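We emphasize that the prediction below concerns an isolated chain of 134 residues; any contacts that depend on oligomerization or on bound cofactors are therefore not represented. The input was used exactly as deposited, without trimming of termini.
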Amino acid sequence: MWIPKNCRHEKFSVDKLQRNFYGKKLVFLGDSTLRPMMYYVMEQINGTLSAPKKLQAFGDFAINSNKTRVYFNYYRERQSKSTTRQIGKSWSDLWQLLKRAQPIENNRNTVLVFGGAEWMRSAHLEYLQTKLKE
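Result of the prediction step, given as a token string:
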């Protein structure tokens, strides 16, 4: 087992997490590998997590005494070799999510988490970056 030397991650208290995420918006777009990460973050901020449904579509959550919003959209690329054109056609999920999570701000108040297990490629990130600049 590999153990990093002199590398420690601070364990934040629920109070500190709640203060740090006060007024923030977390937007998750991903597949079944990202969903449990979102639930973990929600549990850490909220201090608890009721039994979540297995989301296969859109989810909108108010946590941290309604001071933090979390949005999730399930996305799974179904094509093995995606061109930029195919990526654009299949991205209505992303735009639906961003529309529901408005306003999306290019600052510390909005955190966009994007990922997938096997389908994500550099073309996806380039497309996302281009669209966010529009």
